[in-house]
Amino acid sequence: MDASDPQEALRRTVELLAGARNALALTGAGISVESGIPDFRGRGGLWERFDPQEYATIEAFRRDPPKVWRMLAELEEVVLGARPNPAHRALVELQEKEIVRWILTQNIDGLHQAAGSRNVIEYHGNGRTLVCLDCSHRVEHAQRGHQIPPPCPSCGAILKPDVILFGELIPQRALQQGREAVDTADLVLVIGTRAEVWPFAELPRIASSRGIPVVEINLERTGLSDSVADITLCGAAGELLPRLVSRLDSGGLRLGVSDFLE
Ligand SMILES: [Zn+2]
User: Fold this and answer.
1) Consecutive 10-residue runs of the chain (262 residues): their mean pLDDT?
2) What CA–CA distance (Å, rounded) separates 80 from 109?
3) CA dist., res. 200 & res. 28, Å (int)
4) What's the chain look like in SS3?
5) In degrees, to the nearest 5, what angle opens at C-alpha 223 toward C-alphas 217 and 228?
6) C-alpha distances in angstroms, 68 versus 56, 65, 82, 253, 262?
7) Which of 57, 79, 81, 262 is the most exposed place for a label (fewest CB within 10 A)?
8) CA 149 to ligand 1 center in whole angstroms
9) CA 253–ligand 1 middle distance (angstroms)
10) Domain 1-37+85-124+164-254 falls in which CATH fold?
11) In angstroms, what is the span from residue 127 Cα to ligand 1's centroid?
12) Could you tell me which of 115, 147, 152, 144 has the C-alpha nearest to residue 127?
């Protein structure tokens, strides 16, 4: 479609949303930037100060957990201090309207759940729980005490946040739920992610190959824009998603004229 007409892109997206009952929202770092969590890979992100090869692989954690915890402690601080933003809340509304059914996120910040979303599939784990690699004991963050690195209350080994480090597999249950969500989706929203990391990257591509409409919401155009996405909306998710919701609320399909008055 004509990417130079953002009003037409918005109008068509509202139309797709109005007709959807099982939409799947795929979210990434971009949706949480407005909550104060910098994209790890971007400017000011974690990987600027911590080489992921050295600090974020499962091998590094097994070799030297206290060292990797220097990075993890910062990660925890950023994630646990963050609050949901208007983009997270707009997705809650789209779920309440029974338009969006599933949210599949690469984020580990738990902000979708904090906003009130349900059916959240966490592809890369979450930062609110810790797991012991030795005895599989799990502890909620609030119960872990202040010691860093935190010891497992069951066996004394060092706990790891229940997030996927490089070299670890996506949780089997999340993979399976993700496939089911794509299989039943009637619309896919890609929000705040370039969807370049596999296997997450395959999800919008599978949808597109099956003729399911894919709408991309990113700050700028990405590798998805020309091949996978039917519609690309460029802008902040925290601005665009609430706008889509309010157009749905006001019967946006019939208010086309206002689109041209903005
Ligand atoms: Zn243990």
Assistant:
1) 76 96 97 91 86 94 95 90 96 98 97 97 93 95 88 95 94 95 98 93 97 97 95 97 95 50 44
2) 7
3) 10
4) CCCCCHHHHHHHHHHHHHHCCCEEEEECHHHHHHHCCCCCCCCCCHHHHCCHHHHCEHHHHHHCHHHHHHHHHHHHHHHHCCCCCHHHHHHHHHHHCCCEEEEEECCCCCHHHHHCCCCEEECCEEEEEEEECCCCCEEEHHHCCCCCCCECCCCCCEEEEEECCECCCCCHHHHHHHHHHHHHCCCEEEECCCCCCCCCCHHHHHHHHCCCCEEEEECCCCHHHHHCCCEEEECCHHHHHHHHHHHHHCCCCCCHHHHCCC
5) 70
6) 7, 5, 22, 51, 49
7) 262
8) 13
9) 56
10) Rossmann fold (3.40.50)
11) 18
12) 144
Residues annotated catalytic, as ranges: 124
Residue 37 identity (one-letter amino acid): I
> What is the whole-number distance in angstroms between the Cα of residue 36 and the centre of ligand 1?
32
The tokens describing 112, both together, are 């979708």
| Residue at token pair 């109008």 | 11
Report pTM. Answer: 0.91
| Residues paired with 130 in a beta bridge | 139, 161
**Residue ranges per structural domain of the chain:** 1-37+85-124+164-254
